[in-house]
Amino acid sequence: MKRLAILASGSGSNAEKIMEHFQNSEKGKVVLVASNKAGAYVLERAKKFQVPTFTFTKKEMEEGILLKKLEEEQIDWVILAGFLLKIPDALTRAFPDHMVNIHPALLPKYGGKGMYGAHVHEAVKAAGEKETGITIHLVNENYDEGKIIFQAHTAIDELDTPDSIAAKVHELEHKYFPKVIEGLL
Ligand code: GRF
Questions:
Q1: By residue range, what is the domain housing residue 135?
Q2: Is residue 178 lining ligand 1, measured as CB closer than 6 Å?
């Protein structure tokens, strides 16, 4: 049974779907939800699933407190689900090919610094794209540049707004992210 930790900074709707999925899995178990935001709603969602939580500041993470916690908890896989801080190199190096992120667009387009949350969907809309989607990828030292594991696409029509694009993308994320993680374990 692989031990999973989810890192998230916000609402955590993806984290919830992952916790739900792995309640009934023989391959993996979510044993930790960690966040750099003490008030993040993802922590409430973790409580609902009786998954232990851990919070830390950016500085503490850079000093190694998160890596220490992940090692103590004997984590096998680190799942980034809306985690907004740059992961320190020591942390990525500690989980080679065992850290996975979801990005709300079709990388390599609309990735990199500043491309998160609503900014991504606004840029996609402004560029007049006819489709967008999700990218699930391994994490390396450069944001959004690790090996792509999976992509799913969704069409955009003229009436779509950044909000409606975000809703379509979230739907894809919830549908595929837990299953793709399970496939990796
Ligand atoms: C998702 O769109 C994910 O792709 C991005 O951050 C968002 C997190 O949403 N990295 P939620 O907190 O899981 O609802």
A1: 2-184
A2: no
